[in-house]
C-alpha cells in the first residue's frame, strides 16, 4: 500500500507513511451487534478524513489509504482477500480466473479473464485494456505509483508508456481473454504483483495527463459521481459491475461519501458523539488525547485496534554530505530517542518502538536491534564516538523533510531535540501533505532526511526491502529508495533472493538481508504504529485489514440499518 507505500492516512489511517499497501495485525474481535455484524443492503457510508487522496489515477497513487479506496472503483487481475488477519492478505483471483500460470521457468505468466467484465461505460474489459493499463506504469509522468510492473516485467530500455512509445511487445494479448507477461527474470510471486494498482484495466487511448485523477473509469462496484479535490468525494453504484464475477467485494452500501480537510480533533468529537449521519461514519486513527476517552463500555464496542503493519522511519539521503559516511548514519541511529518520538504520536497506545526495517507482521522478519540503547532513549556517547571518528565532533547541519500535520511536526521536533546535544542542527522543512510523497520521491528535490514510512504490498520481504534499497531502482520521479542506497552487496543479495523459487525460503532470506542493510544505516527505524479507530453506531462489517495499513476494509463495510 505501499508508500502507502506509500501509506497515507487520508481516509482511514491517521498516520502518513510511504507505500505500499501494507500489512497489519487483525482488528479486535467485535460481537454481532458491533462493527463486525453483517451489513444490510443499501445506505451511504460516510468517511471523515483529514486530507484528500493523493491520486485517483491508479498508476499514480501508491499509499495505504488510497490503495484501500481503489478497490471500490477498480479491479485488478488478482487482489487481496476480504477478511481480518492473514486470510485478508491471501491473493485471490479478481478479473482473472486464477492467480496465474507460470511457464518458461517462471519468466512467463499467463492470465485468463473472466466472462462478464465491463467498465462503467458498458464497454467490455478485454486483454487489450489490461495491457494498456499496465503499460501506463512506464510513463515518466504518470507511472509514479507501484514500481513492481516496470521492475519485473521485461520492456525495451527506451519504453516510456503507451502515449509516447506505443505498444509494449513484452505483454502479449493472443485473444480478448488472455494476457501473457514476459518477465526480466523468474518471479515466483508474480500472482501477487498483478494485484497492484498498476494492473487496473484502462480503456485503450484514455487516461492521458490528469484525466483519471479528475474522472476515473470504474471497473469495480462503485463509480465517482462527484469529486472536489481536498473537499469531498461521492461514490455511487456502478450498474455495469456484476457481483457474480466478484467474490471479494460485498458492496452492500449504495454509496460512499468522503468529507476531506477536517481537523483530527473535530473528527474524534464527531465520531464519539455519533449524531445524525455520523452514526453511519468511519474515520482514521484517533488523536492521542482521545485514547483515554474511548475506554467506556459503549465506545469500546465501537472501537477497532491493531498494528498498522507499517514501519515509520527517517530516511537518510546517502548522496548528501556528510550522510555519505556510514559512521555518521550509524551515529544518528544511535542518537535518536525513540521514546520521545513515540510520545509525539501519543505513546505506547498508538505505537511500538521500531528496531528493524521490516515490521512484525512481515513473514520471515527477524526480531533484532542493531543500534540498542536503554529503553530506546538513545546512546549519545556511542554516537559521539562515531562522529569523532568521522571528523565531525563539531557537528553539522541537516534539513529534515516532514508533512504539514501536527503529529509529524512533533516527531520532527523530537528528532531535532535528540540530535542537538551532538551539535547536529536539524532544520525542519514542512511540505504540504497532499504533495509530500511526490516531492520526497523526486531525488532532485530531496533534502538530507525525511520522516516517512513503508507498508508491505503483501506480507513479504519482497515488497519491503527491494523497493526501498535496490540501487538499480532509483528513478527521477516516484522514487521509493529515499536513502538512494546503491550498494553492490545489497543489490546482488536481492537478486539471489529473487531467484529463489520457494517463497518461504525467500522471506527468511529477506529477514537476514534486513540485518545486512541496517549495518549500512540508510534509515532510522522509528515506530511500528497502531490503528485505533472508532466507528459509528450504525456501522457493520468493519474490521482492520492487514493488507491496507491496518485500515478498515472498505469493500466489506456497510450499515446495520440502511434506512438510518
UniProtKB/TrEMBL annotation:
Signal peptide boundaries: 1-20
UniProt key word Signal: yes
SUPFAM superfamilies per UniProt: Periplasmic binding protein-like II
Any single Pfam family the record assigns to this protein: SBP_bac_5
Domain Solute-binding protein family, first and last residues per copy: 90-473
A molecular function (GO) term: peptide transmembrane transporter activity
GO terms for biological process, alphabetical: peptide transport
GO cellular component: ATP-binding cassette (ABC) transporter complex; periplasmic space
Entry keyword set: Signal
InterPro entries the record matches: Peptide/Ni-bd (IPR030678), SBP_5 (IPR039424), SBP_5_dom (IPR000914)
CDD domains: PBP2_clavulanate_OppA2
PROSITE patterns named in the record: PROKAR_LIPOPROTEIN
Keyword Signal: yes
PANTHER family for this protein: ABC TRANSPORTER SUBSTRATE-BINDING PROTEIN, PERIPLASMIC BINDING COMPONENT OF ABC TRANSPORTER
Name used for this protein in its record: Peptide/nickel transport system substrate-binding protein
Amino acid at each position: 500500500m505501499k508508500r502507502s507505500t506509500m501509506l497515507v492516512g487520508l481516509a482511514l489511517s491517521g498516520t502518513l507513511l510511504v507505500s505500499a499497501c501494507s500489512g497489519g495485525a487483525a482488528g479486535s474481535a467485535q460481537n454481532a451487534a458491533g462493527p463486525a455484524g453483517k451489513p444490510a443492503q443499501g445506505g451511504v457510508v460516510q468517511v471523515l478524513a483529514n486530507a484528500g487522496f493523493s491520486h485517483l489515477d491508479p498508476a499514480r497513487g501508491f499509499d495505504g489509504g488510497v490503495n484501500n479506496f481503489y478497490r471500490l472503483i477498480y479491479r485488478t487481475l488478482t487482489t487481496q482477500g476480504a477478511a481480518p488477519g492473514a486470510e485478508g492478505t491471501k491473493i485471490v483471483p479478481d478479473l482473472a480466473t486464477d492467480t496465474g500460470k507460470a511457464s518458461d521457468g517462471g519468466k512467463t505468466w499467463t492470465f485468463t479473464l473472466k466472462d462478464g467484465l465491463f467498465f462503467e461505460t458498458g464497454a467490455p474489459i478485454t486483454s487489450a485494456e489490461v495491457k494498456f493499463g499496465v503499460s501506463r506504469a512506464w510513463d515518466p509522468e504518470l507511472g509514479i505509483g507501484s514500481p513492481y510492473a516496470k521492475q519485473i516485467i521485461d520492456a525495451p530500455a527506451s519504453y516510456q508508456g503507451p502515449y509516447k512509445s506505443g505498444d509494449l511487445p513484452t505483454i502479449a494479448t493472443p485473444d480478448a481473454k488472455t494476457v501473457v507477461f514476459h518477465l526480466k527474470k523468474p518471479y515466483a510471486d508474480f500472482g501477487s504483483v498483478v494485484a497492484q494498482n498498476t494492473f487496473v484495466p484502462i480503456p485503450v487511448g484514455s487516461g492521458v495527463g490528469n484525466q483519471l485523477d479528475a474522472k476515473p473509469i470504474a471497473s469495480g462496484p462503485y463509480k465517482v459521481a462527484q469529486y472536489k479535490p481536498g473537499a469531498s468525494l461521492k461514490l455511487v453504484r456502478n450498474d455495469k459491475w456484476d457481483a457474480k464475477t466478484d467474490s471479494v467485494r460485498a458492496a452492500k452500501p449504495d454509496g460512499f461519501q468522503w468529507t476531506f480537510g477536517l481537523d483530527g480533533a473535530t473528527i474524534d468529537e464527531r465520531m464519539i458523539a455519533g449524531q445524525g449521519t455520523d452514526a453511519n461514519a468511519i474515520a482514521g486513527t484517533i488523536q492521542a488525547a482521545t485514547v483515554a476517552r474511548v475506554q467506556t463500555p459503549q465506545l469500546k464496542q465501537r472501537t477497532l485496534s491493531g498494528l498498522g503493519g507499517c514501519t515509520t522511519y527517517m530516511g537518510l539521503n546517502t548522496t548528501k554530505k556528510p550522510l555519505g559516511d556510514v559512521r555518521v548514519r550509524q551515529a544518528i541511529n544511535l542518537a535518536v530517542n525513540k521514546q520521545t518520538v513515540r510520545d509525539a504520536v501519543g505513546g505506547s497506545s498508538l505505537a511500538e518502538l521500531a528496531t528493524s526495517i521490516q515490521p512484525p507482521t512481515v513473514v520471515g522478519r527477524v526480531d533484532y536491534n542493531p543500534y540498542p540503547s536503554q529503553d530506546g532513549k538513545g546512546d549519545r556517547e556511542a554516537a559521539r564516538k562515531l562522529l569523532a571518528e568521522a571528523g565531525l565532533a563539531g557537528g553539522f547541519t541537516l534539513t529534515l523533510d516532514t508533512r504539514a500535520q501536527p503529529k509529524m511536526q512533533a516527531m520532527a521536533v523530537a528528532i531535532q531535540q535528540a540530535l542537538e546535544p551532538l551539535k547536529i542542527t536539524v532544520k525542519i522543512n514542512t511540505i504540504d501533505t497532499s504533495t509530500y510523497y511526490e516531492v520526497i520521491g523526486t531525488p532532485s528535490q530531496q533534502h538530507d532526511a525525511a520522516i516517512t514510512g513503508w507498508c508491505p504490498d503483501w506480507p513479504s520481504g519482497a515488497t519491503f526491502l527491494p523497493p526501498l534499497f535496490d540501487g538499480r531502482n532509483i528513478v527521477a520521479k516516484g522514487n521509493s529508495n529515499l536513502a538512494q542506497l546503491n550498494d553492490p552487496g545489497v543489490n546482488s543479495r536481492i537478486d539471489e533472493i529473487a531467484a529463489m523459487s520457494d517463497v518461504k525460503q525467500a522471506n527468511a532470506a529477506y529477514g537476514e538481508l534486513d540485518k545486512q542493510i541496517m549495518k549500512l544505516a540508510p534509515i532510522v527505524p522509528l515506530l511500528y504504529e497502531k490503528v485505533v479507530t472508532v466507528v459509528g453506531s450504525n456501522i457493520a462489517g468493519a474490521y482492520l485489514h492487514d493488507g491496507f495499513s491496518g485500515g478498515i476494509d472498505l469493500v466489506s463495510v456497510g450499515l446495520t440499518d440502511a434506512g438510518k
